[in-house]
Specification:
Layout (H helix, E strand, L loop, with lengths): L4 H17 L7 H14 L5 H12 L2 H22 L2 H12 L5 H16 L2 H19 L3 H18 L4 H10 L3 H27 L13 H15 L4 H18 L5 H14 L1 H19 L2 H10 L4 H20 L2 H18 L4 H16 L6 H10 L3 H4 L4 H17 L4
Helix pairs in contact: 1-2, 2-14, 3-14, 4-7, 4-12, 4-13, 4-14, 4-19, 5-7, 5-11, 6-7, 6-8, 6-10, 7-8, 7-19, 8-10, 8-19, 9-17, 9-18, 10-18, 10-21, 11-12, 15-16, 16-17, 16-18, 16-21, 17-18, 18-21
């Protein structure tokens, strides 16, 4: 258990203290990560050089670099789109087209559809979060609620899309076709999405009518349309954000929303706005790398798989395994890669259909990733919405629901013999 102590310290420092003080701004999340990382570097276990090497290798991993680049491009795109009027025009058009009661389910369904189409949660969050925040401000809706339904909806696509990393890796490690995994998976999670859309409709009925809706210009909505259209073609999220960024430059400069130098200044402002989140990512990645190097993840795997009894216990072990490893890696794709091989062995030993084991791994990794205040999705959304990540977590209802749905499905349908 001591091998997990840096992570435990972070949870106590950040979540524990914030809950006790009833203020999630009481301890800055970057400071909590810094203290936990220092503890991981200085704690017993291996030599000091080995821990430093693990830390630096952790922050130098390709997945971390990719995450940082997405943060930078997301911040730059969001800032330039806002400065040239894309956010205001998109919000005003949405408010004019959709009745107030359909604002919440409309944004949620859009998040589900786009993420399913493009296979990535981060790209969807970067495109929709600024619009959702604008709608929330105009309609008097809670910003964390709106951001929560955007982030939650993206895990629908992350979990089910045929081009999602988690889907590809889950099916490859378990040895089944993506189509078969999809059919098994959707029976569990689609009811959650439908129920939640209805819930959002009833909540949305209490949203007051927006009486003062501004005008919108279709030309200013083009950056968002380009981002969504490019993503739907399967373009990589990095290229999608680059396209969106330079589209804001073209349109914004032509309609004199800003000068070329003004555009560069907005790019800089957007990057700086994401600075804290990038620091958190680096510190968290280094700390979690030390935990891995000290055998923390292997410790979790051994503890969870030690007393498996029957198919039901095996399926619950698969779910717990990927959840705990996801907590220790803050990356659902890495979590599935880490436990994929041993999960396949457990599934074969206890007669679990590969389609089902792949579905459990993918869905439960999205459940865990969706509830981490230090996960990339929540951090991106929090940065774009300028809210504390912890305030978004209570509104991530979709990840919560699919976690409960998988657990109930295992308890009800699995043969415990």
């Amino acid at each position: 258990m001591f091998r997990l102590s840096p992570l435990i310290l972070f949870l106590v420092l950040y979540l524990g203290t914030s809950v006790v003080l009833k203020d999630f701004y009481s301890i800055p999340i970057a400071v909590a990560f810094l203290l936990s990382a220092i503890f991981a570097i200085l704690a017993p276990g291996g030599t000091y050089k080995e821990r430093i090497d693990a830390f630096t290798k952790g922050i130098g991993e390709s997945t971390v670099g990719l995450m940082l680049l997405i943060f930078i491009l997301s911040g730059a795109f969001a800032a330039t789109a806002k400065a040239m009027g894309a956010v205001d025009s998109t919000v005003n058009m949405t408010l004019q087209i959709l009745p107030s009661a359909l604002l919440l389910p409309g944004v949620f369904v859009a998040s589900c559809f786009i993420s399913f189409s493009i296979g990535t949660s981060c790209g969807t969050i970067a495109a929709l979060t600024p619009v959702a925040v604008g709608i929330a401000d105009a309609a008097g809706i809670s910003v964390p609620l709106m951001v929560g339904l955007v982030v939650g909806g993206t895990f629908f696509g992350d979990n089910l899309s045929f081009i999602s990393d988690t889907t590809i890796i889950a099916t490859q490690t378990q040895g089944c076709r993506m189509k078969d995994k999809f059919l098994t998976n959707i029976r569990i999670v689609l009811p959650c999405a439908l129920i939640l859309a209805v819930v959002y409709f009833f909540i949305g009925r209490n949203v007051g009518m927006v009486t003062h809706v501004g005008d919108y210009q279709l030309v200013k909505i083009i950056p968002y349309l380009c981002v969504i259209a490019a993503a739907l073609t399967g373009m990589d999220v990095i290229l999608v954000l680059i396209l969106g960024l330079f589209t804001t430059a073209l349109i914004g400069i032509l309609d004199e929303s800003f000068s070329p130098l003004g555009w560069l200044q907005e790019v800089n402002n957007g990057i700086l706005a994401m600075a804290e989140l990038m620091l958190c990512t680096l510190l968290a990645s280094g700390m979690l790398a030390i935990i891995r190097s000290q055998g923390g993840i292997q410790y979790i795997i051994e503890k969870i798989t030690r007393h498996i009894n029957g198919r039901r216990g095996a399926e619950l072990s698969l779910a717990m395994l990927v959840v705990f490893v996801n907590i220790c890696t803050a990356n659902n794709t890495v979590a599935i890669i880490t436990v994929g091989s041993i999960s396949h062995d457990i599934a074969q030993k206890f007669g679990i259909d590969p389609r089902r084991s792949a579905s459990i791994l993918d869905t439960m990794s999205c459940f865990a990733q969706g509830l981490l205040p230090y996960g990339a999705q929540v951090l991106i959304a929090a940065g774009l919405a300028t809210v504390n990540p912890a305030y978004i977590i209570p509104y991530l209802w979709y990840p919560m629901m699919i976690g409960v749905a998988v657990t109930l499905n295992i308890m009800i349908k699995s043969n415990s013999k």
